[in-house]
Design goal:
Helix content is 21%, strand content 31%. The chain is of the alpha+beta class and 80 residues long. A 4-stranded mixed β-sheet has the order 3-2-1-4, with helices on one face. It is globular, with a radius of gyration of 13 Å.
Length: 80
C-alpha cells in the first residue's frame, strides 16, 4: 500500500521502487499490467489473457524476475 512504503520511495533517488497498475481489457477477458520504476521511469508492460489473481501475480513475478536483484526493492499498486 502507498501509505506503507518507505519514505525514500517519494524522493525518487534510489532505483528499485516500482508502481504497478492493472488495466482491464474492454471485453473483460484479460488484463494489461504496467510496472513503472519510479526513478528511471523504465516501464514493463504485459498482457494476460486471464483475470485469475494467482496467474497475474505469477506473471508479474516472471516479468520482474528478468531484472537484476538490486533493481527490485518494492512494488506498490497504484490504486492503493
Amino acid at each position: 500500500m502507498i501509505d506503507e512504503r518507505p519514505s525514500e520511495v517519494e524522493t525518487r533517488k534510489i532505483e528499485g521502487h516500482w508502481e504497478g497498475n492493472l488495466i482491464n481489457e474492454a471485453k473483460q477477458i484479460g488484463n494489461i499490467v504496467t510496472l513503472v520504476e519510479r526513478k528511471s521511469r523504465f516501464t514493463l508492460v504485459g498482457y494476460f489473457g486471464t483475470k485469475e489473481a494467482q496467474k497475474i501475480c505469477d506473471k508479474i513475478c516472471e516479468m520482474l524476475g528478468k531484472l537484476p536483484t538490486d533493481s527490485k526493492i518494492s512494488l506498490t499498486p497504484l490504486d492503493s
